[in-house]
Amino acid sequence: DAGVIQSPRHEVTEMGQEVTLRCKPISGHDYLFWYRQTMMRGLELLIYFNNNVPIDDSGMPEDRFSAKMPNASFSTLKIQPSEPRDSAVYFCASTPSQGFGSPLHFGNGTRLTVT
Amino acid sequence: KNEVEQSPQNLTAQEGEFITINCSYSVGISALHWLQQHPGGGIVSLFMLSSGKKKHGRLIATINIQEKHSSLHITASHPRDSAVYICAVRLRVTGYALNFGKGTSLLVTP
């Protein structure tokens, strides 16, 4: 099992540009989560999906952020337009649907720098 | 106010010492996770508990639901244990979403 795969590992972009982060969850996992980590705020949930359907997007900062999960093996997090305050590490994680007793599997993260 | 508080924020220990990291939370939870984040940035799930105690190698995690408190213990610490340890809770009201503590940065010196 390859684990949760995120791409790219690093992204440097200029303010105002569109950024797309990608995630492939572990096969068979029904839940997919997008988290953001900053020094100031630590880890924060942005949005999560169950069976490709967005369940809770209350953590999405504003309309500049959008996330999709077109199928069970792929999700994207898009920021348009990007701003310097979006600089952070973005993690994707997945877990199987086994009630509340399932561990979380994280990808290696995408380090985003917006200049 | 963060519902999850960890202490200490930073911890330095000598190799071989017994280490305890604490996590307190203020609301009802369905599960508590302990995560480890190495300097390279990857995050690994160490434990998921809803009651009692779990042990894996030199790591032990306990939770007291009534006191809303969990501890992560490391016995015979080693420099390779140096990492950030993060407590996260799954709130009953939010389903699968996790609320995270700010983490405890552990440095174990030889």
Number of helices of chain A: 0
Structural class of chain A: mainly beta
Helix and strand run of chain A: EEEEEEEEEEE
Q: Termini of chain A, distance in Å? A: 36 Å
Mean pLDDT of chain A: 92
From the spread of the alpha carbons, the general shape of chain B counts as globular
- Say what oligomer this is: heterodimer
Radius of gyration of chain B: 13 Å
Largest sheet of chain A: 7 strands, mixed
**Rg of chain A, nearest Å:** 13 Å
Look at the helices and sheets of chain B and give the structural class. mainly beta
Taken as a percent bin, the fraction of beta residues of chain B is over 45%
| Low-pLDDT stretches of chain B | none
Overall residue-averaged pLDDT value of chain B: 92
Instruction: Please provide the count of β strands of chain B.
Output: 11
Broad shape of chain A = globular
Number of contiguous helices of chain B: 0
Helix content of chain B: under 10%
β-strand percent of chain A reads over 45%
Primary descriptors:
heterodimer; A: 115 residues; mainly beta; 7-stranded mixed beta sheet; 4-stranded antiparallel beta sheet; 11 strands; 0% helix; globular; B: 110 residues; 6-stranded mixed beta sheet; 5-stranded antiparallel beta sheet
